[in-house]
Amino acid sequence: MNMGDKNIGKSKNINQTIYLHALFPFVKFTYVWFASDID
After folding, report:
1. Structure pTM?
2. Residue-wise pLDDT tens digits, 1-39
């Protein structure tokens, strides 16, 4: 049971990391777009 909980926590962290990595380029693009829009 304890191992199962650990594995669930691990996969949750991995999913979060993948999600953040997938989101980062979009956030960066949006930031650059807004920055160039202000100029």
Report:
1. 0.42
2. 556 566 666 788 888 888 888 889 998 999 898 888 876
Q: Which amino acid is at 8?
A: I
**What's the domain count of the chain?**
1
Closest CA to 23 of 11, 31, 35, 12: 31
Return the amino acid letter for 5.
D
Instruction: Tell me the chain's radius of gyration from C-alpha atoms.
Output: 17
Range of the domain at 22: 1-39
CA angle, residues 22, 7, 11, in degrees to nearest 5: 5
Q: Which amino acid is at 26?
A: F
DSSP-derived 3-state class of residue 4: helix
